[in-house]
Specification:
This protein is 5% helix and 52% strand. The strands form two sheets. A 14-stranded antiparallel β-barrel has the order 2-5-6-7-8-12-13-16-17-20-21-22-23-26. A two-stranded antiparallel ribbon has the order 1-4.
Amino acid sequence: MKLNYKKIAFSTIVFLAAGPVKAGWTQSLGMSEQCIAVGGACVAKEGDFAAFYHNPAAASAFENTIIGGNLRLLDTTGVDLQDSGGRHSIDGTNTEGQVAIAPTLAFYAPVSKDLTLGLGLGAPFAITADWENNEGIHRFNMSDQSLFVIELSPTLAYKVNEKFSVGISSNIVALKQLRTESLLPQSFGAALPPALGGAGTIIPTTFNSPVIGSITTNTDNSVGLGIPPDSFESSFNEFSFTLGMQYQATPRLRLGAVYRSKTDMSFSGDLTLDLDPAGLGKQTVRYDLELDMPGHIQVGAEYQLIPNKLAWSVDTQWTNWASADGIGSTTKFQFDAPLIGFINDLQVDYKANNAWTLRTGLEYKITNHTTLMAGYAFDESIFDDQYVDILVYDSDRNIFSFGVSYDQRDNKNKSGWILSTAIQVINYKDREIAVGKSQNLGGFSLPNLIDADTLSFTSNRDSFKYGGTILAFGLSAQYNFGN
């Protein structure tokens, strides 16, 4: 077999470019445009390069070696924030020239007519935002955030018979990053006791309160990729697994199911309390944090309304957010030394609900090479008002998608490119959090101390309304090497 090395080189540098996503979890939005364009209803569909994540069983149908990747661009300027100070728009998706890039690459090779091996690299969990607002009550809860998990996924797919296939991926956490920044208003310093430089008094926190400092957390920076966010903590000792199956029930109907286990994770790094703007100095301590990523179950079906012409797919996904430490239950940043003399940890108190996502999509083949796609998904909110804050930016979401795929293959050995592009509109339902309803949204507007030595967030002292839209554009490229 003669290989075209230029084509190989091109396909191996396709990346998923995910600008700040304002809590748009990759886990909810998908990894390849062929899946994204049908609303993510792809657990029963023919597999593409992202089979290692969407359904590893789909890789059993690959008749030859393939390699592929994805490129996504997101515009979050349609996100809307409002408080008593008015509306606080997002000036740009990527502030200060910063871009967040998470690679998605995959390679598969059949080793027999029934067995396929593969290797995927992708970011199943990613959330990032740089709010960069000079005003707004939310900035005292979170002004900057970044959570990235990049996994390496060896994959095995086996065709049991002509109708039934199974697959498994081992999702090994290779790199991870956690960064948060919360600004401190004047009220935080004023409420500190006199021995710590404060006045021991309570003053109001408003949307334009002066900033006297910040609390920042960063994971260890042992690996630099040269692309923002550049610094990651290496892992390779944390993992989950994904099990998948597909069953061709009739010539027109294919069924699929996937189970992904929870990923038990921990982060370590530095936490810095910076009160230099108030003349109170700066202190950095080491921290350890338990923070898990949730598992999910997804089941679905694809039905050929018109054989080889028009296909309809429907999926439902249940995500077990409640079992993930740090998202579904309380967790703590544990310090190796007391902060300002007596604070030994920082409590993060979330209690996420398990949630359903409904997905559906259509594919219409208009020529032998070109297919049109459209989809819709409803993504259920996971947090009650009590736990909502700007870090999670959570409400019910309606996700609309449109796309087109071009299959360039027309030779006898089926070699060639499959190119797909899609547009995704993620609309957040408007949600208003009344004063005092969220125990987290107030951020560090006051030094809230519980159990004497534990710092925690406070309730919101201003009403807060949010919603808006994220726009996404993507391109997938997959090369089939042929027989």
